[in-house]
Design a protein that fits this description.
single chain, two-stranded parallel sheet, 7 helices, about 10% strand, two-stranded parallel ribbon
């Protein structure tokens, strides 16, 4: 969501689409911490980080998934088999468990998870949403 980063406009457009059409969105609660931290760090603004996390929390259709023992085990398996960073494995485990598409800019997720679950960039997701 940082305008200085590549892909920011498409990321913002994708989030806007989620606001307009309340599809179910499965996210680990970890996302809120990452959003708050990333925004606060990039903009040196604690309040903006918290506000962005709250805005994401309040998206229509959002289904929050807590990291329990079972999901942790699934994330560990994905992290070790596909050589993912820990947090990336949590997102992958949530997407796989709920049979949904993982939308990300992360190159490791895009390259390493295609064989086990649908993975799209926000740009690709926007293109699919635009199709009738």
């Amino acid at each position: 969501m940082n305008p200085a980063e590549p892909g920011s406009a498409d990321s913002q457009a994708f989030v806007e689409q989620l606001h307009q059409r309340p599809w179910p969105v499965f996210s680990p609660t970890l996302l809120l911490v990452e959003v708050a931290s990333g925004v606060a760090g990039a903009m040196n603004d604690t309040g903006r980080g918290i506000a962005m996390a709250q805005a994401i929390h309040d998206l229509p259709g959002q289904i929050w998934i807590t990291l329990d023992d079972s999901l942790t085990e699934e994330a560990i398996q994905l992290a070790t088999e596909h050589r993912l960073r820990g947090v990336d494995a949590v997102y992958a485990a949530v997407a796989r468990r709920h049979g949904t598409t993982l939308v990300t800019w992360d190159r490791q997720q895009l390259n390493r998870l295609q064989s086990i679950l649908p993975v799209l960039t926000p740009t690709q997701a926007l293109e699919r949403l635009a199709k009738p």
